[in-house]
Design brief:
- It is built from 12 helices and 8 strands.
- The protein is an alpha+beta fold.
- The protein folds into 2 domains: 152 residues, Alpha-Beta Plaits (2-Layer Sandwich); 99 residues.
- The strands form 2 sheets. Strands 2-3-1-6-7-8 form a 6-stranded mixed beta sheet. A two-stranded antiparallel ribbon has the order 4-5.
- β4 and β5 form a beta hairpin.
- It is globular, with a radius of gyration of 23 Å.
- The relative contact order is 0.11.
C-alpha cells in the first residue's frame, strides 16, 4: 500500500509539472569542454608581451621617447617564464572550476558533473546548453571577473585572452544509453578542436533510431544560430526553410546562395513582420560570410539549424 501511495504522489507531481511547464523534451544535453593549448601556456609559448601590461600613459611615454632607441623591442618582448607564471595559471584554473563554472551551470539550470582546471562535464537543458557553453568559454579567457562568495563579491584573476576553450555537445534521445552518449560527447569535443580549428564547438544529435548528425563552428556563430532557430521554432518562419536552405547549399554558393537564402526566407515567412524577416536575413547572411571566412563548409549552418530545431521542438526532421 505504501508503494502504491508513493507512486500516486509522484504521478500527481508529474502531472502538475506538465500542466505548468508542458511536456518535457525527449532529448537531454551533455556538455564537455576542454582548454585549448594549455600545455603551451604552461611552457611559455603563448606568453603575452610586456606591452599588454603597461599602463597606457607609460606605454605612450616610451613610444614617444626620442632617447630610448629600443622602445619597440621592449614593448614587443614576451614576459619571462617563471615559477610565478605557473602558480598564477594553476590558481586561475582552480578558481575558475571551483567558483565560476558551477555558477554558470546553475544559472542555466544545469547539473555539474565535474569541473577541474580546464575540464568541464555537465548536463543541461537542450535549449540552454549552447549559451551556457559560450558563457563558460568567455569567462575562461577573461583577465579578471567577479564571483559571489557567501554574499560578497570578489574579483578573481582569469587566464587572459591568449587561451581558449572548445566544447562538444551531445543531444541524446532519453531512451539512448548514457554510456554511449558520453562516448559521443568525447568525440564531439575532439571534433571541435580537430575539424573546426579549436576555440570552437561541435553539436551532435543522437536520434532514437541511432542516426547521428553533427555540425559545428566558432563561438561567435552561436548567437546568430540560436536567434534563427528560435525564430523558426516560434513560427516566425516555417521549419520548411531548413530543408530549402540545405538543398540550396548543395548547388549554390557565394552571392547566389545569399540571394536564394533571402528569397527562401520570404517564401517561408509565417508570423514574422518585415522588420523581423530583415533581422533574420541579416544574421543568416552574416553566418554565411563567417563560415566562408573561416574556410568552413556552409552546409554546417543547415545541419546546425536542423539539429537545434529537432531538440528545441522534440521533433525529428
Amino acid at each position: 500500500m505504501e508503494s502504491i501511495k508513493k507512486k500516486e504522489e509522484i504521478e500527481n507531481k508529474l502531472e502538475k509539472w506538465r500542466n505548468i511547464f508542458g511536456e518535457p523534451s525527449k532529448y537531454y544535453a551533455i556538455l564537455m569542454m576542454d582548454g585549448d593549448r594549455i600545455g603551451k601556456a604552461l611552457s611559455g609559448e603563448i606568453l603575452p608581451i610586456f606591452g599588454e601590461f603597461f599602463h597606457p600613459a607609460f606605454k605612450s611615454k616610451i613610444l614617444n621617447s626620442e632617447t630610448f632607441m629600443q622602445k619597440e623591442s621592449l614593448i614587443k618582448i614576451k614576459r619571462i617564464l617563471s615559477p610565478s607564471h605557473h602558480i598564477a595559471i594553476s590558481r586561475a584554473m582552480k578558481d575558475f572550476s571551483l567558483y565560476k563554472v558551477p555558477e554558470i551551470v546553475k544559472k542555466y539550470e544545469g547539473l555539474l558533473v565535474y569541473a577541474g582546471g580546464d575540464d568541464v562535464l555537465a548536463l543541461l537543458p537542450v535549449d540552454k546548453v549552447l549559451e551556457a557553453a559560450k558563457d563558460i568559454q568567455e569567462y575562461f579567457k577573461k583577465d579578471f571577473y567577479e564571483i559571489d562568495i557567501n554574499g560578497e563579491r570578489k574579483e578573481l584573476m582569469g587566464l587572459g585572452n591568449k587561451v581558449t576553450m572548445s566544447a562538444g555537445i551531445v543531444f541524446a534521445h532519453y531512451k539512448w544509453p548514457l554510456y554511449d552518449a558520453i562516448e559521443n560527447v568525447r568525440k564531439a569535443e575532439k571534433k571541435a578542436k580537430n575539424n573546426y580549428g579549436r576555440n570552437a564547438f561541435c553539436i551532435t544529435i543522437i536520434k532514437r533510431s541511432g542516426k547521428i548528425l553533427s555540425a559545428g563552428g566558432k563561438w561567435d556563430f552561436v548567437g546568430d544560430l540560436i536567434y534563427i532557430v528560435k525564430s523558426i521554432v516560434n513560427r516566425k518562419v516555417s521549419h520548411g526553410f531548413i530543408y530549402d536552405f540545405i538543398n540550396a547549399i548543395e548547388i549554390l554558393e557565394g552571392d547566389m546562395l545569399k540571394a536564394e537564402a533571402k528569397r527562401l526566407l520570404n517564401r517561408r515567412r509565417e508570423k514574422a513582420t518585415k522588420d523581423e524577416i530583415k533581422e533574420i536575413e541579416g544574421k543568416l547572411l552574416c553566418l554565411i560570410e563567417k563560415y566562408s571566412a573561416q574556410d568552413l563548409q556552409v552546409k554546417e549552418i543547415g545541419n546546425a539549424l536542423k539539429i537545434l530545431y529537432n531538440v528545441y521542438k522534440s521533433e525529428e526532421l
